[in-house]
Specification:
Elements: H1 3-12, H2 31-44, H3 56-69, E1 73-77, H4 80-91, E2 98-102, H5 108-115, E3 119-123, H6 134-139, E4 145-148, H7 160-169, E5 179-183, E6 191-192, E7 195-196, E8 203-207, E9 221-225, H8 228-238, H9 253-283, E10 299-300, E11 306-309, H10 317-330, H11 346-351, H12 358-366, E12 367-370, H13 378-397
Parallel strand pairs: 2-3, 2-4, 4-5, 5-8
Antiparallel strand pairs: 1-9, 6-7, 6-10, 8-9, 11-12
Bound molecules: pyridoxal-5'-phosphate.
Amino acid sequence: MDADRRKEIIATQKPEIPWANEPMMGSYYGEEEFEAVRREMEACNHPHIGFDANGPTVQEFEERFAQWCGAPYALANNGAGTGLDLAVMALDLEPGDEVIVPAINFKAAALSVLGQGGTVVWCEVDERTFQADPEDVERRITDRTRAIYPVHMNGMAAPIDEYLEIAERNPHPRHGPLKVIGDAARSCGARLKGRRVGSWEWICVFSFHTMKNMTTLGEGGMVVTQDPEAHEKMRKIRGFGGDIWGTNYKLTNVQAAVGLVQLERIDEMLDRRRAVAAERDELLAGLEEITVPYCPEDRWHTYYLYTCLVPEAWAGEKRDRVREIMDEEYGISCVVANPPCYRSNEFLNQNTDHSDLPRSELLGKRLLCVPIHPLISTSDNEYIAAALWETVERVREE
Ligand SMILES: Cc1ncc(COP(=O)(O)O)c(C=O)c1O
């Protein structure tokens, strides 16, 4: 993008929505969602019916979601944080059991391991895809390892097929092949080798939190599994147990009604995200210091985030200078998602060994996520790209 064009765009195309970070509403609603809420509320507003979350709407949402992502069982719940707790509860960890978790991550997966008395063993990620590096995962397996716990980072599927092979090759002495649990909170709809995430893992967890690819009125999630026993156990825990401990992690039926409509809309919303990303890749082509998101041929990226890298020489200070100028001068805030998560969570910092993660430490200083959303127009996308060009050229000279 040449300098004259950039200046013209910046002078004339300032977006009405100040795109920032991970936008607070990751999906969008239309009349269909409003109608679904009204319909569900009217149907439940009766002394004999009420808003019982065990009713048919939640069940229909579970069945349709399971079918859509290609998993035999699905359990709707109130968020991915509790969904990850359910998954680790299904593992039945014993003290000293280890679970391998990528360090470049959101905090929830590691917290769910500590919450069940397990030990977090951090691993490095691939520096192009930001997914748990299979070689490093295998290197960190011991005879206490029970599970490999990758996040499908920032909208892309992790190479689950490779972790499954590693899990078979390195069985636990008593429990057999390691379990593979996926955190797909940011990657609803992502595909590996043509199959959606959720169809590969022992258990996979989705979020419908307000920022995510599809949303159910602020909070919500889904836990899918291939394993009928794990499904039954998690179902009991979600609804106050029975012969085992339980609590209440249920999704409301009004949320499920919205989820059913969002599920009809998700492919369209993901196509829009992908179109914004492809257009931006072109707009940024030639801007040397910015490595745009890389996607291997066997993946279908949902672009929950548009995750860029700055050069090693810009790690830390210069990267932060780019963020500062983008924010202060152009009104576009760029999030860092995520530095090693023990750096942003004191509990993880104190309760995990993070002494051997040089690659993650460096990546945490180079990541730069430029705002993306299915409703970003070509004009807004041009503004964001022009702002980044101008900013980078300025930081280059400083
Ligand atoms: C990767 C990842 N895992 C888990 C969560 C937790 O999701 P929820 O807000 O639905 O509990 C998030 C939320 O931001 C996330 O990004």
